[in-house]
Amino acid sequence: MADYASAMVFELVTNVSVSASSYPSADQISVRFLFVNGSAAYNPLTEYPLFGQSATEVPWNTFVSSMNKFAIGDQASWCSACGNTTGTCATASSSPGSPTSSTTGSSNGGVSKDVAGVIGAMVTLAVLLGLATLVMLLCDLRIVSKKRLVGASRDRETVSPALKD
């Protein structure tokens, strides 16, 4: 295990003698939860109680029933829990009768991200053009073509020598 890694272990334990041909029943199995934040070489695994109990060993049947209260059992439930509607979840969210088909669609009256981006760009462009127009009006600036500027400078050159005399 890497030095920076953590480890989480669900350990199945029993007090019954087990051979190669026998396996204990579910009533004879317990589960322990062990965790270490960092490398097990430097820090030992620590037992923690599960489901708010004080004992660190939980009977197998209690463990299964407690985990089923919040476990995600199928792909559609996972896609609903994480909110993903793309990739593998696209088929799960669009299948009829799935619990996610009514909550992940765009039927909530909202705007898609693409349309929102276009609207944002257009609003930004309109604001910038409005500010440029306002600056031009307040500062008495004009937009003039280069041809008019060249013609005006020639007119000044032809007039200015006569004014020098």
Description:
The chain has 165 residues and is α+β, with helices and mostly antiparallel strands. Strands 1, 2, 3 and 4 form a 4-stranded antiparallel sheet that branches. The chain has helices at residues 60-68, 75-82, 88-94, 113-138, 146-164, and strands at residues 6-13, 30-37, 46-48, 57-59. 42% of the residues lie in helices and 13% in strands. A hairpin with an 8-residue loop joins strand 2 (30-37) and strand 3 (46-48). The protein is rod-shaped, with a radius of gyration of 37 Å. The chain has 5 helices and 4 strands, in the order E-E-E-E-H-H-H-H-H. The model is unreliable at 97-107 (pLDDT under 50). The longest helix has 26 residues, at 113-138.
Concise synopsis of the structure shown:
42% of the residues lie in helices and 13% in strands. The chain is an alpha+beta fold and 165 residues long.
**What is the chain-wise order of helices and strands?**
EEEEHHHHH
Apparent shape: rod-shaped
> In percent, how helical is the residue content?
40-55%
- Class by alpha and beta content: alpha+beta
**What is Rg?**
37 Å
Mean pLDDT: 79
N→C terminal distance: 96 Å
What is the number of helices?
Answer: 5
Poorly predicted spans: 97-107
> How many strands?
4
